[in-house]
């Protein structure tokens, strides 16, 4: 085979080394097929001569079949002794390796770019998390400071709540005092009987005015003093029983107006 290649190369003119290799491959392949045919025929004759060797021959036949199929699927590598052919094959192999390496280099460069982008994104995420952590730490410190040192607003709210509680307590106490005072006045200062007002009067006269209790008189004076402290005087009328008015004046609980004796006011004990 090497002599044939040398003769073709020495004959002059361009040489297609691929065609030469293909011819050599076809020649070797034909030889293999002939050997396979002979083996098949030999195996058939042996089977006819002796049944004792049937199992062994079947095993050899299966092995040869597997080898045959393997050789059919395999691309035989033929090494030629022609230096020109080897040079051409080496160039093609090197070109293929170069192409593969370039593809690998491109893939590695793309992978590096992707890793750089991922790294940059992770660094940015890490910075954002650090900023968020700093913000949360500051907020926690501010919250601790506010808890340790209450703000002016919270103090105002607390003072307002305490004041409301005190006012409610005072209102309850005032209500209890007024109730106790009313019970005391109703028990010890009742209204005069109706007969005392109508005694020695003509039967044809108009009915007497309904009197109010001393408790009601004091409530009127107190409400007037609380609602209009700048004008605390109340004008008395026939419903105010004179003995009660004299009693209140005598003990200094009420005062007359300096210019109008028909007007009374409660003494300002709270001042």
Write structural notes for this entry.
This protein is mainly alpha-helical. The chain has 8 helices and 3 strands. Helix 2 (17-49) runs antiparallel to helix 3. The chain is rod-shaped.
Structure, briefly:
The chain is built from eight helices and three strands. By secondary structure, it is mostly helical. A hairpin with a 6-residue loop joins β2 and β3.
Give the helices and strands, then pairings.
Layout lengths: L1 H9 L6 H33 L4 H20 L9 H66 L3 H37 L5 H5 L15 H14 L6 E2 L6 H9 L3 E3 L6 E4 L5
Antiparallel strand pairs: 1-3, 2-3
Helix pairs in contact: 2-3
For the biggest sheet, the summary is: 3 strands, antiparallel
Distance between the termini: 140 Å
Count of helical segments? Answer: 8
Arrangement of strands in the largest sheet:
1-3-2
Overall SS class = mainly alpha
The gross shape turns out to be: rod-shaped
Q: What brief labels describe this structure?
A:
8 helices; 71% helix; 271 residues; mainly alpha; three-stranded antiparallel sheet; single chain; 3% strand
